[in-house]
Structure formats: structure tokens, C-alpha cells
Amino acid sequence: MKVYIIDYHRDDPKKCTGRKLIKLNFAELTRYGKGIILDPYSKRILSILDKDIALKTGITIVDTSWNSTSKIEFEKIKGEHRRLPILFAGNPTNYGIAYKLSSIEAVIASLYILNEVEEAIKIANIIKWGHTFLELNKELLESYRNKSENEILEIEREVIEKIIGEP
């Protein structure tokens, strides 16, 4: 599955996981959205129903700082926008924070959800904390894997209810 990176050059170059994916030939740099655009502001959620699109046209990650990106910037990118369901960062900067994944964690999660588990594990192996991310989210990733959008939304709702203690 092709992975594309749009790099806004707002991250610390030493910590930029998108550039690492490009350097190690796991992703290709692009200036335009292709296929599925991972967008944290999207109302639609990535699911197995998106696999055909991802196989044909790829997945695009916008590599930028969480502190300097707005919804408007994502809206300008053409493609099929999808967000990831609740997952917890395994990276040292945002460890344990829901939804605040690095670019490489977003790629790993996307591949896992789309049932490309071997490729997800292969990419997790290129960073020290890749397996931390997988272990931290193992149960969630397995529950999202191969599921429809509605099924994932229901699982996510249940997880959030457990976290905030609502019935």
C-alpha cells in the first residue's frame, strides 16, 4: 500500500517521523493529497471499507506540528478525508495522549485497521517506540481491524464512555 507524506516543515527535523518514512522508502513525498487523506478533523472514520481506495491510490499523511495546524489547512487538501478512531500515542513526546499520534503512528494504525498488519509491524520496527505504540493500543487496534465505519464508531463511543465514566 502506497503511503504519501505532505510535509509542511513545521516539526523538529530530528523528531520528524514522516521524513524518516520517506528516507527509509516506506513513503513518498508529495505536494498534493492522494487517496485517503488522514485528517484529524474529518467526520468520517477510516475503516476496512476504505481499503480498496487505499490500495488503488494510497494513504496521505500530513506531516506537521500539532500546535500549528488548523482545520482549514486540511480542508484545502483534495481526497477522501478520514480520521483515525481513538488511539493513544506511544511516542515519547505525547505518550498516552489520545488522538495525538505521530505521523508514523498514524501510518501504523491505518495499515492495521485496513488489515495490513504485517506491513504495520514492519514499519513499527523502524522506531524504538514502535512496539510501545502497538502494545499500548493492541486491544483497540484488534477491535478496529477489518471493521466497518459504523462498527468502529460504536467501539470508539464505548471506549470514550469508559474513560469519562458515562453510562
Secondary structure tally: strands: 5
Spatial ordering of strands, largest sheet: 2-1-4-3-5
Identify low-pLDDT runs. Answer: none
User: Would you tell me the overall average pLDDT?
Assistant: 90
Helicity range:
40-55%
Count of discrete alpha- or pi-helical segments spanning 4 or more residues: 8
| Termini gap | 39 Å
Largest sheet: 5 strands, parallel
By secondary-structure content and strand pairing, the structural class works out as: alpha/beta
- Strand portion: 5-15%
Q: How many domains would you count in the coordinates? A: 1
- The shape is globular
Helix-strand string: EHEEHEHEHHHHH
Q: Could you tell me the radius of gyration in angstroms?
A: 15 Å
Binding site for S-adenosyl-L-methionine: 17, 62, 84, 99, 103
Protein name: 16S rRNA aminocarboxypropyltransferase
Family: Belongs to the TDD superfamily. TSR3 family.
Organism: Sulfurisphaera tokodaii (strain DSM 16993 / JCM 10545 / NBRC 100140 / 7) (Sulfolobus tokodaii)
